Amino acid sequence: MNDILKVSGLQRSFTQGGVTIEVLRGVDLSVRTGEIVALLGPSGSGKSTLLQAVGLLEGGFDGSIRIGGEEAAQLDNDGRTRLRRDALGFVYQFHHLLPDFNAIENVVLPQVIRDVDMGTARARAESLLGSLGLGHRLEHRPSQLSGGEQQRVAVARALANRPALVLADEPTGNLDERTADIVLAEFLRLVREEGSAALVATHNERLAEKMDRVVRLHEGVLEDGSGHL
Fold first, then answer.
1. Cβ partners under 8 Å of residue 36, min gap 6
2. Residue 21: CB partners within 8 Å, gap ≥ 6?
3. Could you tell me if residue 205 is inside a domain?
4. Is residue 227 part of a domain?
5. pLDDT for res 229
6. What is the DSSP letter of 95?
7. Which residues are listed as membrane-spanning (predicted)?
8. Which regions of the chain are under pLDDT 50?
9. Do 20 and 14 meet the contact criterion of CB atoms below 8 Å apart?
10. What CATH number is associated with residue 142?
11. CA 60, chain centre distance (Å)
C-alpha cells in the first residue's frame, strides 16, 4: 500500500522572550492510502502544529512533507494552494461553518471553488449530508443545527472534493461524550466509504482506539521513529 503522506525530519520552533521553544523535533510519520491514523497526545504536545504543517497552512518548518508523492517544500504558494485544495480535507474542533450559508451551501462552496458545476456540486452535497442523517436539514443554517449536526456538516464539507487525506484536529472535542461517539463513528464510516485516508489528532485514548493505528506525540517527538507501530 502506498503512502499518501510521508513526513521526514519535521521541525518547528518558536522564540519567546529570548527563549527558543522546540515544538516539533524531527518528526517522521507515514500515512498509507486509505488508512485512518490517530495522532494521540496531551494538549501542548505539538499535535495541532503538526497538522498545520501537513495541511500546508503556514511556513516556518524544516524537513520534508510529501503528499501524494509531491514535495511541498518544492512548491510555490500557488502550488501549495493547489495541493491543499485538491488533496486535503479539514475538520476542526469547532466547525467553522459559514453562518449565513445553509448546510448544503456550506458543502457546495468548496466544490464550486474547485470549479465543479453547481448541479454536480449540489448532488454531491445532498448525497454526503444524506449519508450523515441530515437529508431533512439541508436548508438549515448553522445556528439552527445542534452541535453534533454542525460537526456532521463540517465532515461532509471536508469530504466534498474527495480528498486523498483528511486532517482532523480534535473533531469531537467540543461535543458531549455520547454525541462525540456518534459523530466519530459516522466520520470514520464515511472516510472509509470514500476511500480517503485520515490523520486525526486527539487526546482521547478511547476514541483513538477506534482507528486503524495510533501514533503518540510527546513534547514534539513521536514514540516510534517511522510513524508505524
1. 188, 191, 192, 197, 198, 200, 211, 212, 213
2. 13, 14, 15
3. yes
4. no
5. 39
6. -
7. none
8. 225-229
9. yes
10. 3.40.50.300
11. 20
Q: What is the pTM of this model?
A: 0.89
Instruction: Take residue 210 and report the three cell numbers written for it.
Output: 477506534
Q: What are phi and psi of 174, to 5 degrees?
A: -100, 10
In a domain, 218, yes or no: yes
Read off the DSSP letter of residue 36. Answer: E
How far is residue 140's CA from residue 182's CA, in Å, rounded to a whole number? 21
Q: 59 — alpha (psi -120 to 50), left (phi > 0) or beta? A: beta
Asked whether residue 229 is assigned to any structural domain, the reply reads no
User: Smallest Cα–Cα separation from 51: which of 171, 184, 209, 204?
Assistant: 171
pLDDT of residue 224: 58
Supply the pLDDT for residue 129: 94
- Contact indicator for 88, 55 with CB cutoff of 8 Å: yes
Instruction: Give residues with Cβ within 8 angstroms of 170, minimum separation 6.
Output: 92, 93, 201, 202, 203
